[in-house]
Amino acid sequence: MTSLEVTEATAAVIGELGARYMLHPETMAVGTEAKYANGFAWYVTGRGGVLGDVDADVVTSAFGFFGGGLIRKMWETGLQTESARDAGRRYAGACAEFGRRRLQGVAGLERFSELAEKAMDSVDLSGLALFAALRAEPAPGDAAGRAYWNISLLREWRGSEHIIAVRANGFTPAQAVLTGYKDLATGVAEAAKRGFGEGHPDAAPLMPRRAAIDAMTSQLQATGFDALSGEERAEYASLVTVLKDALDANK
């Protein structure tokens, strides 16, 4: 497989798998136990906590696809519970535990992590703030926790590349959300939920340009997979399928 082929073959799966833990009831229960005011404050502070003690604008920049007012409110609410670094560590622990409960004993975990880390270690971190911050954190020591951690990290990698592609193609983050679904009504609802407000102009005229954003995102991410051989890329893609099957068996 070429670098672009493996990127395009696995991107959607990694994106969906890596998001599963984020708002999952198991993860939300961790935030409730820690006395967070609400689940979204826990999500924002936990996911963004790896950035350190920063202003909410930095978190908005790194997340990319949420309105600044919403992020500020949830970030500042979350910081009333614990520091950013502590929140980030707690959220990372919930990520690893999510994987442990579902991937224990699955064949190929160590090899998946080896290949994923080989690709990610080669990435130029310029402009990839959230990915860089998360990659700098210590990975779990066990195979199952580490494998799912790497799935999450792979997702943040693509997400950070996607922000660059969105801006390079002249879209705002709100426009990217509006056009990110086949059903435009879903995009409108999602934009409102993400803090971009309501009353957006019709996004339909933007749809023909949307494909260029997704293609650029894949082209940017594909350079990281140049670190793998063609055989390693095919092996990596196969292992992503194995992990998907295991994770699908216990959502």
Q: Name the structural class.
A: mainly alpha
User: How far is the first residue's CA from the last residue's CA?
Assistant: 30 Å
- Number of discrete helical segments: 13
* Average predicted local confidence, pLDDT: 97
Percent in strands? under 5%
Q: Ranges with pLDDT <50 over ≥5 residues?
A: none
Q: State the total count of DSSP E strands.
A: 0
Largest sheet: none
- Tally of discrete structural domains: 1
The helix/strand series, from N terminus to C terminus, equals: HHHHHHHHHHHHH
The rounded Rg comes to: 18 Å
State the share of residues found in helices, binned by percent: 55-70%
SSE map:
Blueprint: H1 3-19, H2 25-33, H3 39-48, H4 56-63, H5 68-78, H6 84-103, H7 109-121, H8 129-135, H9 143-168, H10 173-178, H11 184-193, H12 207-222, H13 230-248
Summarize the structure.
The chain contains 13 helices and no strands. By secondary structure, it is mainly alpha-helical. It has one domain (3-248).
Kindly describe this structure.
With 251 residues, this protein is mainly α. It has one domain. The chain contains 13 helices and no strands. The protein has helices spanning 3-19, 25-33, 39-48, 56-63, 68-78, 84-103, 109-121, 129-135, 143-168, 173-178, 184-193, 207-222, 230-248. Helix 1 (3-19) packs parallel to helix 13 (230-248) and helix 3 packs across helix 6.
